[in-house]
Amino acid sequence: MTGPEPIRPEAAPDAVAFVAMMRQLKGRSGHTFRQLEKVAARHGDYLPRSTTADVLRRQALPRADVLAAFVRACAGEEHVAAWLRARERLAEAAVAFDDARPNDDLLLYPVKQAFRTTVRPAGGR
Q1: Is residue 124 included in any domain, yes or no?
Q2: Which domain holds residue 89?
Q3: Does a structural domain hold residue 123?
Q4: Which of 3, 8, 1 shows the shortest CA–CA distance to 83?
Q5: How much of the chain exceeds pLDDT 90, in percent?
Q6: Is residue 3 part of a domain?
Q7: What is the pLDDT averaged over residues 59-79?
Q8: Cα(41)–Cα(18) distance, rounded to whole angstroms?
Q9: With contact defined as beta carbons under 8 Å apart, do 84 and 67 qualify?
Q10: CA-to-CA distance for 110 and 90, rounded, in angstroms?
Q11: Fewer Cβ within 10 Å of end Cβ, the chain: N or C?
Q12: Which residues contact 77 (CB under 8 A, 6 or more apart)?
């Protein structure tokens, strides 16, 4: 009998899927938030249960240090590097996307100019 298919963080297309995989990893660990906090402490990490709960509730990438502590507590040191690489890839893609988006002020400039030229103050000429 084989176990469940491994979780592959490198396959996450975005932060939402990545965090969903983190929730799956926690579920497979069988640990409660309190237990994860204790396991992390044994590894020398600081991972408050409130932080873990917040990270798993969000749809954004966690900080690298929080991710490393979380993965170490859930699955062991041997899995940390793969999760950090996947996080870095997604973070770089998000930055590239933000850099590629046009500036909202530039997009709205024609609208602002049209508004300024067509709207006159009350009683004005």
Answers
A1: no
A2: 9-118
A3: no
A4: 8
A5: 71
A6: no
A7: 97
A8: 24
A9: yes
A10: 34
A11: N
A12: 43
